TrEMBL record:
This is OmpA family protein. The lineage of its organism: Bacteria, Pseudomonadati, Pseudomonadota, Alphaproteobacteria, Rhodobacterales. Pfam families: OmpA. It comes from the Bacteria. It comes from Maritimibacter dapengensis. CDD domains: OmpA_C-like (cd07185).
Amino acid sequence: MSLKLTARLIAATSVVALLAGCDAATLAKLEGREAGAIPADRGFGSSTQHNHLLQTGQISYVESLAARFNETVPDTINFAFNSAQIDEQARQILARQAHFIRQFPEVRFRVYGHTDKVGSAGYNKSLGLRRAQAVVHYFASQGISTSRLEAVVSYGETQPLVQTQDRERRNRRTVTEVSGFVQSNPLILNGKYAEVVFREYVNTAQSDNTVQGGLAELLAAAGGG
């Protein structure tokens, strides 16, 4: 038997053994898939998938960072009835939000105010705005520039979490969200990612950060260089 024929037999035997070790579910996933295709599920290869989605415009850095913010810290605080005062529980949540925001000076945030349905629509619109403004004032006291906080919005009573006409604490809330990048800071847009990575590395080494890895990990997952 020639060496070439022997090599072919060994290769064929290896393929058969490999397929024999695959279960039906695995084979079903492989069937019809183009070689090198992006995995459809999370896990191994998720960074490649994430980078593919970013490069093709299917998701953006803003959406990615917004998701990270929501996964890292609570985005909502609640208020007492007919009040815009920040209580101790809310203050602890805002402290975590502020810690996250301080680490990303290139990013803008927006605060939304909400109320329950007790009272007139006009009054609740004003109350929701006062609650959002109270959050902005707290962030300012933590060293965050208000120029990074886009239009503070009040939805009043129009977007309740719980559908009720009665007093409902869960409806009396503010929500903080990532909204975009600071226009005057081109750091994210001009490719100088290394500056952010270095800054975040130093920051994480100096304190026990809530944000693990910060923007460095975000950019690594996005394939930025």
